[in-house]
Amino acid sequence: MIDLFAGCGGMTSGFTAAGFRPVLAVEWDLHAAATYAANFGAGHVRWADITTVTDVPEADVVIGGPPCQGFSNLGSRDVDDPRNQLWKQYLRIVREVRPAAFVIENVDRFLSSSEFGLLQAEVRPGGLLSGYHLTSGLLLAADFGVPQRRKRAFVIGSREGAIPLPTPTHPSWHGVRTVLHGLPEKPAATALPKSTVEYFGQTVPGRFTSADLHLGRNPTALSLARYQVVPPGGGRFDLPDHLLPRCWREKKTGTTDVMGRMRWDEPSLTIRTEFYKPEKGQYLHPQWEPGPSGHRVDRPITHLEAARLQTFPDDFTWCGSKIEIARQIGNAVPPVLAEAIGRHVAAHLGGTKAESACRLCV
Ligand SMILES: C[S@@+](CC[C@H](N)C(=O)[O-])C[C@H]1O[C@@H](n2cnc3c(N)ncnc32)[C@H](O)[C@@H]1O
């Protein structure tokens, strides 16, 4: 398989677990490419802008999703519009490789974007995707065993008959307890170890183990006072007036998940790239009991906890600064979801069995 816009390799992690072997990964962010290389080998990684990548190897499957640059208001369906460059690049490589199937992941709004319209139009005879059948829809990661309510758009293209999207494998969802329980409540460190490693002739921070990623922060007294009053399932609306920042006091509607606290027995909301900032989402640790002596863990989730909620295996290793690693984690397709999709595609293409035991269920 080929992974375009590979990031740290969340999607590759799932597809390799489903039996695929990567022959090319393209990623232009040095630290994401280094993390990818640390886990899957540097030999097939092109740390480069996709527009410069030529001589692409053969592959059965192409995966990945160009970052969406604009949505329904973009207007133009012109393939030559510079804003569609990344799509052109994806389609260019698919046309060159002519894989049996390709899989695109993107944000949920993607399916109503003009970029998606552009993609669909290309299946016409003579179009860049001529000969492919497309299926598309939204998948909820929790339905596939990920302890996270992450909803993303997926498009599967196939030259061997339409491949429907996979159907949910987990009618009952995993709560965050499945992956957070038992980790130290007080992280021992606030900074990554001072080690570096070389990839692509460059020196980058790394390689860090998942244990290195269990990092605490030093919140201000005001932040702590805010965390303390938010119960599981609650958020900024639980803050008393004197603890409200002005912007929230004035904006009484919208952004309901900010300063949110997880519930032990429910999946988390979407883990985005700044999960270490409670003011950006539902990122507070689920442990909370009321009262002055209640047992509470008043902090946002650590990088390790975020990686686990994204279902990265604990033997995954990481490169980059704290901020860069957080971006890699938040941008990724959860490996457990990617594995379900990979098995499903492989089964349609006549490869391995679709069924397998869920890593988190055992
Ligand atoms: C959403 S992330 C991919 C996440 C990945 N699928 C995973 O599961 O871990 C998109 C990636 O595209 C990369 N990217 C954006 N523009 C690029 C370009 N012109 N060439 C190569 N990579 C690019 C970004 O650096 C980012 O890591």
TrEMBL record:
Cited PROSITE patterns: C5_MTASE_1, C5_MTASE_2, SAM_MT_C5
GO-annotated molecular function: DNA (cytosine-5-)-methyltransferase activity; DNA binding
Keyword Protein biosynthesis among record annotations: no
GO BP field: DNA restriction-modification system; methylation; negative regulation of gene expression via chromosomal CpG island methylation
Protein name: Cytosine-specific methyltransferase
SUPFAM superfamilies named in the record: S-adenosyl-L-methionine-dependent methyltransferases
Domain of life: Bacteria
Species assigned in the record: Actinokineospora auranticolor
Lineage: Bacteria, Bacillati, Actinomycetota, Actinomycetes, Pseudonocardiales
Known catalytic reactions: a 2'-deoxycytidine in DNA + S-adenosyl-L-methionine = a 5-methyl-2'-deoxycytidine in DNA + S-adenosyl-L-homocysteine + H(+)
Family indicated by similarity: Belongs to the class I-like SAM-binding methyltransferase superfamily. C5-methyltransferase family.
Pfam families given in the database record: DNA_methylase
Annotated coiled-coil segments of the chain: none
Enzyme Commission number, as recorded: 2.1.1.37
Keywords carried by this UniProt record: Methyltransferase, Restriction system, S-adenosyl-L-methionine, Transferase
Xref: Gene3D superfamilies: DNA Methylase, subunit A, domain 2, Vaccinia Virus protein VP39
InterPro entries tied to this protein: C5-Methyltransferase, C5_DNA_meth_AS, C5_MeTfrase, C5_meth_CS, SAM-dependent_MTases_sf
Active site: 68
